[in-house]
């Protein structure tokens, strides 16, 4: 493997799902605690806390994460419909007051139409991103300690300033997840980090990164991706297919997503269908795999293969500018393979950041 230019690579895990068959074996608090402690022990930067109707409230989980770790940064998914920006800023201030450190915001417009309808959020796709733009600008102003006296389309404030405001809130970051034209336009305005569920490297460069940079975005880049790596490529593929078996229901859900209003879901679904229809003799020959997405059990692509194969592919994204890697969750027997992949990527000049490094985090 060739050595590439050194840059930091921030690694994020994700909190385990709060529902599922494993609930009977171990409490949710124990699983969240174990995940957080193992991530911090590995030197990973943070942990994504999702926002869904079927998950435990992310702010309560963030508080627990702060109590069981010293440096790990919660990356909290926030839908603007779920709380006002001054409430989100106040929650961040409370976290900073308790634990003396920042948290990050992952602003999401909402991926599931059924959940949006159930909560009465009936805005169109582009309207949701217009609201997110105003939300992000307002949230950032509050985190900086600015006095707000303005009336926008979605939010109005009169001589309002966040109090108390711990100085560490200056270290908070705003992530924006999106792949559509509306989403990327908002990201250019408000994001410290723009996150995407990437296509294969070459397509990602041509269809996503080049237009994004040409449009003026100069912030950080993040990708959401899973990793299943073993010393032997065949063993990795066996593990991937065993964990994410394809089913009739998964295929039907994937077909429905090909017409989804959500841009990244639609793009991944179209690519997943094409991948499934590829000639049989090419199956399992590419490290980039959408079988987990096609199974209906994962929302992101996976990199599958030997440690060296996966490290080369991940390093290609990092070389292109990705500084934040949000893992799509990892099983207990994945951790060793992921650590080996990161070690190999580090050898190529891409250094995972220690979460306590505030200089690197800014």
Strand and helix layout:
Blueprint: E1 7-14, H1 28-42, E2 46-49, H2 58-68, E3 73-78, H3 85-99, E4 104-107, H4 113-118, H5 125-143, E5 148-151, E6 156-160, E7 174-177, H6 181-190, E8 193-196, H7 201-214, E9 220-230, H8 233-243, H9 248-257, H10 263-276, E10 288-289, H11 291-294, E11 302-306, H12 307-319, E12 322-327, H13 335-347, E13 350-352, H14 358-361
Parallel strand pairs: 1-2, 1-12, 1-13, 2-3, 3-4, 4-7, 7-8, 8-9, 9-11, 9-12
Antiparallel strand pairs: 5-6, 10-11
Helix pairs in contact: 1-2, 2-3, 3-5, 5-6, 9-10, 12-13
The value of Rg in angstroms is: 20 Å
Shape: globular
Number of helices: 14
Average pLDDT rating = 86
Helix content: 40-55%
Query: Could you tell me the strand content as a percent range?
Result: 15-25%
Give the biggest sheet.
8 strands, parallel, barrel
Low-confidence stretches: 1-6, 354-362
Overall structural class, as computed from helix and strand content, comes to alpha/beta
**Lateral arrangement of strands in the main beta sheet:** 1-2-3-4-7-8-9-12
- Ends distance: 30 Å
Q: Using DSSP, what is the number of strands?
A: 13
Order of helices and strands: EHEHEHEHHEEEHEHEHHHEHEHEHEH
